[in-house]
Predict the structure.
Amino acid sequence: MFDILILALLTVITAATPLLFAALGEMITEKSGVLNLGVEGMMLMGAIAGFIVVTQTDSILLAIIMSAVAGAALAGIFAILVLVFQARQVPAGLALTIFGVGLSALLGQSMIGVAYTGLPKIAIPGLASIPVLGDLLFNHDIMVYLSIVMLLLIRYFMNRTRGGLILRAVGDSHDAAHALGYRVNLIRGLAILFGGAMAGLGGAYVSMAYSPLWVEGMTAGRGWIALALVVFASWRPTRILLGAYLFGGITILQLHAQAIGINVPSQVMSMLPYLATILVLVLISRDRVRIKLNAPASLGKPFHPGH
Amino acid sequence: MKPYLERRQLESKLWTYMSPVLALLLTLLAGALLFRIMSVEVAPALYIFFIEPISTSYGLSELWVKATPLILIGVALSLGFRAGVWNIGAEGQLILGGIFGGGVALLFYEQEGFYILPLILLAGVLGGMLWAGIVAWLRTRFNANEILTSLMLTYVAELLLSYLIHGPWKDPEGYSFPQSRIFSDSALLPVIADGTRLHLGAVIAVVVVLIAWGVLARTRLGFQIKVMGDAPDAGTYAGFSHKKVIWMTLLMSGGAAGLAGVIEVVGPIGQLLPSISPGYGFTAIIVAYVGRLHPVGVLFAGLLLALSYLGGESAQIELNLPLAVGGVFQGLLLFFLLACDVLIHYRLRLSPNKA
């Protein structure tokens, strides 16, 4: 029984990691005042880029880098649209998702049916041999560790550095930040690219570790769930971690329900993450004051310097 | 000499209509480049994609078959987008329309009656309205973001359809394939041109376009929708109810998407399958924008985007290209359109000295 519990907790971690990457990235983008609805598309680009590179070159490091590059490249299109061409952010983000779904399917055409073993586990010497906790905390693949490192870095950046302060200033009042001499569009551009890279990493985790193969549209709405997680977490990194692991838990319920003997149609179990997302949105959003206090004040508003 | 953007005093009418044309030309250019990269001969590929599918009268009828759901949903979505209500889950509302309408069709299996088809269509509309009504309720009652809730409900709708045709609605003589019975003739939309698949749905779509045009141009609700989108504060000051606009635009777009869904299942498909739409609900978002959020524009945009499906199919058959090429073209078109739209609000200027 105890082994089963450990196994279940481990699958929670693998289900949560893609959400953690994507939601952390989107949080940074939104903190700069930009809402990018293209997370799903960027995740898919990262998923296919990572899968192609890892199966063709066998280099995990290169695959991870290229998945981030692919996500950032797609985000670059979004940045040009909203920052240079002053496009509205909602349709531009939707365009990004539609394009990303199509382009990843096109690139992945020859990858259907290609097998990959999945990312190897790296046991941290010494710590991994601690009973129970060792397996749970110190015996994961490299991307799980990376996701936690990124969380800590982002937390530090947001709360302890000047850069984090500037990012928040740009997101809360772009006019004031501009008047202070900060280059609003440059900072937003960087935040968008970072968000894209993180979404790419999240996508790569789906295709390289969670279910190591390529299927069209395989992120199955995780990009949208990540967007909801950012609201759920009130734009705070640590709460994103909590939210991601909570959703990871809900996602794997469907895998273990049958094992425990719950006799519900599989489709109903698969609905749970989506229904939970709606429920969470409802619980968080009905407190309008709290949303207003935490959301970046300039979120979604366009900025045109000068004139 | 450095180019910069200068804000216009007034929106440019010219560029409102020229922007989609320019975007289409740029999409064709980018498409040519894409074919080059995939080492496909460009001129024949563009011909196969954009011209050949509509070079016969059968092809033209197929264009209308594909355009029907796009126009229906695009028209209704553009009403919501004008008011700033982002219903992104039309695909889910379409599926619910298919489920409700298909359910009634199965209920009247092997029965005759003139009332069956209208009942089926009505059920489809109600199904779509129900799904969009949940979104409206969550938005107005709990302030929950309609983009995310409508999208989540799309995934739920797909799973619901999957459950029904794997379970209670599975065809008993279907060799355990996940599909419903094939509907009886009394439940199917009549074909309006012999030798084609062009059905009554195309006529319904045109009627809906005309109704939407009337609502937008001639009714109080249409006026409220426009004011709420352009100047929400002025709308509130004038005493317009924001909640009412949210409810009305969502119910209308949900109903239209549901109608599109039921028309698909009792039109070209004729039964319930695991997938009853190749993403019409999402493509309709592009249709709404290319059509300038205007019912008549949406009619033409629907035909254009329908071509991306037909072109994708013929490119798959003749050039062995993946079907996803169509999706890439759709995304490119929206990218270019959004970029070109900058010219509606801004003038491109060159500064002689430094900017």
